[in-house]
Design brief:
five-stranded mixed beta sheet, about 425 residues, alpha+beta
């Protein structure tokens, strides 16, 4: 027996009902994107290294899949859609100053053994809204996330909204160097309040500023947190950042969706290009976010265009996994028809199949092989998610068999005789 060739570590095949469910879920998500007026865009699976360089602030270089083209240029498999979209927009929408709404779907690739339990190739879908710096734009994306969650079938979920500008304003006031700010940010992100307080004690900071920074990891909850964030600082940029969150909240009330959001001032992203709000959507039965996103008003400048932008990415594999774990059924279509025929009825089978396809039906012709019985094809049809079989027994006798309800009735196929 020849040796079976398996997939490399970190990638896998998706097939059968899992693949059908994935396609169904993607279609549901895409209908939400369309309903908000977003246009599709496709970018290459690999780009020049500069698109994902350290200056851009995306995935670390050590986690990128890198290779060379024949001219010696370093290429990278896309680890993150946002820089690719930013590059494309800077090329094709350079003169456009009005809002640009784009949506995408595809694979991303991250080469890191630290992502235990994660595949190195993952499917993502998302949107980017450019040339709009308003709270309304941010609220629109939050509203879209809620509708994506509902459309997918989730009943219980929550969206946490953070504000990078708030943290950055306090860090700027404290005069922290980049390395110190990163260390403090990491402790705040993992809710290590004691570590953060110990770190801050070593710095020569005003008591008010030390208190504000030290409180960030615990500042999460509903609208009362916005009041606390205002109360602990007089920093004008930080207060402006809080005001922006309040504006978003009021707009979400117009959508009738404010009950789905909480605020988290300790949420900080590993991606350095975020400049304003950042957000993550969670549901139970999964310890990780199923949606991540935020505002990145400076990113496009790396590619030559000045434009504000906000976007989010849905981690489709995590979303599908959460639905399965919660027992939420993702429909698998059983609507295809098998035309089952003996050799001498091949011409008739082809004519029937062609006619059905012209009427928009999904039809596959299957020859009845010697040595098999009808039950073999019924079992095969169920395994392959056919809805039914049109069984051509002779030129005069044909039957329609519903594979899932065991209903059988004769049908007239005389018109397909030559």
């Amino acid at each position: 027996m020849e040796r079976l060739i398996h997939t490399p570590e970190g990638v896998r095949d998706i097939y059968d009902s899992e693949c059908e469910k994935k396609k169904y879920l993607q279609q549901q998500v895409y209908t939400v994107f369309q309903s908000f007026g977003y246009q599709s865009i496709e970018t290459p699976s690999f780009e020049y290294f500069d698109v994902f360089s350290r200056e851009v602030g995306t995935t670390p270089s050590k986690d990128l899949y890198k290779f060379f083209d024949r001219d010696g240029n370093t290429l990278v498999l896309r680890p993150d859609f946002t820089p690719s979209i930013a590059r494309a927009v800077s090329m094709y929408y350079m003169q456009e100053e009005m809002p640009i709404r784009l949506c995408y779907q595809g694979s991303v690739f991250v080469n890191s053994s630290s992502y235990r339990g994660h595949m190195n190739e993952a499917t993502q879908m998302g949107v980017e809204l450019l040339n709009d710096d308003s709270a309304a734009a941010d609220a629109e994306l939050i509203a879209m996330i809620v509708q994506v969650m509902q459309k997918s079938g989730l009943k219980e979920f929550q969206i946490s909204i953070g504000q990078v500008d708030y943290f950055n304003s306090l860090v700027e006031e404290a005069g922290l160097e980049e390395e110190a700010a990163a260390k403090l940010g990491e402790m705040i992100s993992i809710r290590n309040q004691f570590g953060a307080l110990e770190f801050l004690e070593k710095l020569q900071l005003k008591e008010e500023l030390r208190t504000a920074l030290g409180a960030l990891s615990q500042m999460l909850g509903t609208t009362e947190v916005l009041g606390r964030a205002r109360a602990v600082t007089k920093n004008k940029k930080a207060i402006k950042a809080v005001q922006h969150l309040e504006d978003i909240y009021h707009i979400l009330k117009s959508y009738g969706l404010e009950q789905y959001v909480t605020f988290d001032f300790g949420m900080l992203s590993k991606f350095k290009y975020y400049t304003g709000i950042i957000f993550q959507a969670y549901t139970y039965q999964t310890g990780e976010a199923v949606v991540t996103g935020g505002r990145y008003n400076d990113l496009l400048e790396h590619f030559g265009k000045r434009a504000s932008a906000v976007g989010f990415t849905i981690l489709m594999d995590q979303l599908q996994s959460a639905l399965e774990r919660q027992g939420i059924r993702i429909p698998v279509r059983n609507c295809r028809t098998m035309i089952l025929y003996a050799d001498f009825l091949e011409n008739m089978a082809v004519r029937i199949a062609s006619d059905h396809r012209l009427r928009g039906m999904e039809v596959a012709c299957v020859r009845f092989e010697h040595g098999r019985v009808l039950e073999d094809y019924k079992a095969y049809g169920r395994r392959a998610h056919f809805g039914g079989i049109v069984y051509l027994q002779s030129e005069q006798e044909a039957f329609a068999i519903n594979l899932w309800e065991e209903d059988v009735h004769s049908i007239d196929v005389a018109k397909y005789l030559l």
